[in-house]
Design goal:
It contains three helices and 14 strands. The structure holds 2-oxoglutaric acid and fe (ii) ion. Its cofactor is Fe(2+).
Length: 196
């Protein structure tokens, strides 16, 4: 992927590029519907400060079947690539660098994801994360890990691709805040490489 002409959304200490219409509207409509139906979406509990709470969204983990994914006190067992996932992966990852994808289904604006970094050891030192969004537009925010007042925002639209790389996961947290604006579902796919 050639990212040379794309501006960096972060001012320093990381690289984030955004491709608004990576997939056409027609293609995105079909992929959204297909993923909605073919993925075994589940609401999973996570542990936060020792307490078990349900995640405010549905999730799934797909790709390399040898690679379970452990985060926030849960371990997700992978499902195989589905037809829609293969179509998306072939388009964003022709060199076959990513081993797996984490899927999130935000049922409406009340579903969200809190501040976090994608910095699990298994992702290596400078993880490359490719994030595909389908369905309702949602605001995606970055905030600097030590200067929490330093925030950058981008609207993740239907068919968009956001690429996080370099030192991003060391210095910046990200989240999808709740909103009263959006009532339609949104599916997000974050492609990752798991080492080992
Ligand atoms: O839904 C999104 O755009 C963000 C997902 C995310 O940050 C993650 O899966 O780690
Ligand atoms: Fe993330």
């Amino acid at each position: 992927m050639n990212t040379n002409q794309i501006p960096n959304l972060l001012p320093f200490q990381g690289e984030v590029s955004f491709y608004e219409s990576f997939f056409s509207v027609e293609e995105s409509d079909v992929l959204l519907q297909q993923l909605y139906e073919e993925i075994p979406w589940k609401q999973e509990p996570i542990r936060i400060f020792g307490k078990e709470v349900m995640q405010p969204r549905l999730t799934a983990w797909a790709g390399d079947l040898d690679k379970a994914y452990a985060y926030s006190g849960i371990t997700m067992q992978p499902i195989d690539w589905t037809p829609a996932l293969r179509i998306i992966k072939d388009r964003i990852d022709p060199d076959d660098r990513f081993t797996n994808v984490l899927l999130n289904l935000y049922r409406d604006g009340q579903d969200a994801m809190g501040w976090h970094r994608d910095n699990e050891k298994i992702l290596g030192t400078n993880p490359v994360v490719a994030s595909v969004s389908l369905g309702a537009s949602r605001i995606f925010q970055f905030r600097h890990y030590t200067d929490k007042k330093l925030v950058r925002s981008v609207e993740l639209t239907h068919g968009s691709l956001l690429l996080m790389q370099g030192e991003t996961q060391h210095y910046w947290e990200h989240r999808i805040p709740r909103t009263t604006q959006s009532t339609e579902p949104r599916i997000n796919l974050t492609f990752r490489t798991l080492y080992g």
